[in-house]
Design a protein that fits this description.
The complex is a heterodimer. Chain A is of the alpha/beta class. Chain A folds into 2 domains: 4-136, 3-Layer(aba) Sandwich (Rossmann fold); 145-191, no CATH class. Chain A has 9 helices and 6 strands; from the N terminus they run βαβαβαβαβααβααα. In chain A, strands 1-6-2-5-4-3 form a 6-stranded parallel β-sheet, with helices on both faces. In chain A, α4 packs across α5. Chain A is elongated and about 65 Å long. Chain A starts with a strand and ends in an 11-residue tail after the last helix. Chain B has one domain (4-182). In chain B, strands 1, 2, 3, 4, 5, 6, 7, 8 and 9 form a 9-stranded antiparallel β-sheet that branches. Classes of the chains: A alpha/beta, B alpha+beta. At the A-B interface, α1, α2, α7 and α9 of A face α2, α3, β2, β3 and β5 of B.
């Protein structure tokens, strides 16, 4: 799929567009929407260098449009549109000019089902979007198991210690302070042991 | 101020000054990861960094997926672990022949999140006759419940793993900028 992007690729490719009046859609597994919106809230401002408002559509389309009208932010992240029915999307389409507040655009985070409803009921807005409907490849920026094992093997070779040795040192509050030992515990999913070193 | 006790007091004072003036607070690990991604992507666009966007994505990774409401400790890694300084381990390469990697540990159990450890190492092009790879490494060691007796938690290694000098108060992003834009390699050594 051409439009399947990881979060880092999405930011790299679209970071420059966030500063212009362009709207985009990111389609996400419905169970991942909340976490994705959190990640986007943390990262979009860094790439766009403009203030970003996160606006929920759970109170309906007219409420969403009003929130956008009142908001002081320049760029908008819209979510919780997944319960909208055909009619809500038709109203959204009719009111689309209210989204245009100047020279900045926004991003809709939608489930696959909501994206289909939008495509069928908001043809004018979809025309605005053009090809900018993207699908999220989740967690591609997270270290893979294979990469994790490789780093652990390198740490073991460097120190002559095993994973169990390092866990035992941390449990006994004798973890060496070299930064590599913090990484080691995190790679073992035992970051909790860093708490004991405080 | 010539005896060892005084030197240790000086170390403690220098470390305190350095750490008190270093930006180690971050919103969270994801925002720091994004700032690093942006910095590297910009350097790639400017041809400072010899890595395309997809290569940056392969090299820059997060070590743990934080869950909402259950924040812990996270690692951001740029390039592979490379204690032996061999070029076959994945790394970032600069247009001037320098190459580097890094790893950062972030404590997200507190608000704001805090950077509690990192290692950044840049290696310089080897000249004819050199047997060891010249390098500069900047480490922030993990905090310790007992004061580090050497009081040199935040230090740099100037081409020698055994020599430690107090680091200037530079955050990870500032060190990354220094690697990308601040180290000009001359063909000939500066004349004395």
């Amino acid at each position: 799929m051409d439009n399947l992007f990881s979060l880092d690729e999405f930011l790299q490719r679209n970071g420059g567009l966030l500063d212009s009046n362009i709207w985009m859609v990111l389609v996400v597994d419905i169970n991942d929407i909340e976490l994705t919106v959190t990640d986007l809230r943390d990262t979009l401002e860094i790439f766009s260098e403009c203030s970003t408002g996160t606006i929920s559509g759970e109170s309906g389309v007219r409420n969403l449009i009003n929130q956008i009208k009142e908001a002081s932010e320049e760029y908008f992240l819209l979510w919780k549109l997944d319960d909208w029915d055909n009619n809500e999307w038709k109203i959204f389409d009719a009111l689309r000019s209210r989204l245009d507040k100047g020279n900045k655009g926004g991003l809709l985070v939608l489930s696959e089902q909501a994206n289909n409803l939008m495509i069928h009921n908001a043809p004018n807005f979809v025309s605005w979007l053009g090809a900018r409907i993207y699908y999220l490849h989740k967690d591609a920026e997270i270290l893979s198991d294979e990469e994790c094992d490789r780093r652990l093997a390198t740490l073991q070779e460097w120190t002559g210690k095993t994973n169990d040795d390092v866990i035992a040192l941390a449990e006994n509050r004798q973890l060496p302070t070299d930064p590599e030992y913090g990484e080691w515990l995190i790679l073992l999913n035992r970051g909790d042991l860093l708490e004991r070193q405080k | 101020m010539s005896d060892k006790n005084n030197w240790q007091k000086i170390c403690a004072d220098v470390q305190e000054r350095s750490l008190n003036n270093t930006y180690l607070d971050v919103n969270n690990a994801t925002s720091l990861w994004a700032a690093i991604l942006k910095c590297l992507t910009t350097a790639s666009d400017e041809k400072i960094l010899n890595a395309k966007q997809d290569e940056i994505r392969k090299l820059l990774k997060k070590g743990a997926s934080s869950q909402i409401g259950k924040k812990g400790y996270t690692e951001i890694m740029g390039g592979g672990k490379n204690f032996n300084r061999t070029q076959d381990i994945p790394h970032f390469k600069l247009h001037n022949g320098c190459w580097f990697d890094f790893a950062i540990t972030i404590d997200e159990t507190c608000k704001p999140a805090q950077i509690i450890g990192f290692d950044f190492e840049i290696r310089f092009p080897q000249k004819e006759g050199e047997t060891l790879v010249p390098f500069l490494r900047i480490d922030l060691n993990l905090p310790e419940h007992n004061n580090d007796e050497r009081n040199i938690r935040f230090h740099l290694h100037p081409s020698n793993d055994d020599i430690m000098i107090h680091s200037p108060p530079m955050s990870p992003l500032e060190i990354l900028h220094m690697f990308l834009y601040g180290l000009n390699i001359r063909d000939k050594p500066r004349s004395s």
